[in-house]
Specification:
Elements: H1 2-7, H2 12-19, H3 21-27, E1 29-34, E2 41-42, E3 46-48, E4 54-58, H4 66-78, E5 86-91, H5 95-102, E6 107-113, E7 121-122, E8 135-140, H6 150-160, E9 161-168, H7 189-196, H8 209-215, E10 218-223, H9 231-237, E11 244-249
Parallel strand pairs: 5-6, 5-8, 6-7, 8-9
Antiparallel strand pairs: 1-2, 3-4, 9-11, 10-11
Length: about 250
């Protein structure tokens, strides 16, 4: 198993896990790590990463990554969204959340993406086919770094969010970078991966990400929820140190 995993390109680990999930889950069964999304435990998580491998990043059972587990804990412990009867829009739905959220009878849950087979509505995030002020809660995670006109996408998310509504808009963000960096002149895929984290990312965000969000009307907050989690849980759940971008519509 170890040899097989080392031979597979890291982004394909997710697809491999889908095909062989029952066997992989059994192989990694243990009590060192736990996925808080479903409570399953393992002796280790899988390594994952496009450029730099992160050890114990990908859960073999749910296919969650560090950011998914942190987001789940935030939703569960700090909000009532998981139990509220609300209208939810999920852009580019992550597989780890899709089945769980689809099972929520108290949610009016819509998924949307231009290409994903999980999407209920095939749509461009820069031209969403939804009415103004439609959704109480929006999830759009690790999407905006792929969008050339991210301000237009933010405007669309703002438009379809209800007044007083909340959205969580996670992106890869370098905390020590002041301003976002993008350069369309860099066309080599390996070079783009080195600079932007993935070949298909169009920018790397810095602290000005929150200014961009507020420019379109959102009130943006960088929630440092990880500081409220014990060191024991951070290790057991294999969590990242990143903050969670939470926005509301004024």
């Amino acid at each position: 198993m170890k040899t097989l995993l080392n031979l597979v390109p890291r982004p394909w680990l997710i697809q491999l896990s889908i095909w062989f999930r029952p066997l992989i889950k059994l192989y990694f069964k243990g009590d060192q790590f736990t996925d808080p999304i479903d409570g399953s435990s393992y002796r280790k998580f899988l390594p994952y990463g496009y450029q730099n491998l992160r050890q114990n990043a990908l859960c073999p059972g749910t296919l969650s990554l560090e950011r998914h587990r942190l987001l789940w804990l935030y939703l569960d412990r700090k909000t009532t969204f998981l139990t509220d009867s609300i209208r939810v829009l999920h852009i580019a739905p992550e597989q780890v959340f899709y089945k769980k959220f689809k099972s929520f009878s108290h949610w009016d849950y819509t998924t949307s993406d231009l290409h994903s087979p999980l999407a209920d509505v095939k749509a461009d995030i820069c031209a969403l086919p939804f009415e103004d002020n439609s959704y109480d809660f929006i999830l759009c995670n690790h999407v905006l770094e792929h969008i050339p006109n991210d301000l237009k996408a933010m405007e669309e998310l703002y438009r379809v969010l209800k007044p007083g509504g909340t959205a969580i808009l996670q992106v890869p963000l370098e905390e020590d970078r002041e301003n976002a960096f993008e350069d369309d002149a860099i066309t080599d895929q390996q070079e783009r991966t080195r600079i932007f984290g993935q070949y298909d990312h169009v920018r790397v965000y810095g602290q000005d990400y929150y200014n961009r969000l507020e420019k379109v009307g959102f009130k943006a907050t960088a929630v440092d929820f990880i500081k409220e989690i014990s060191a024991t849980e951070v290790k057991r759940f294999a969590l990242p140190t990143e903050r969670i971008p939470v926005v509301t519509k004024k």
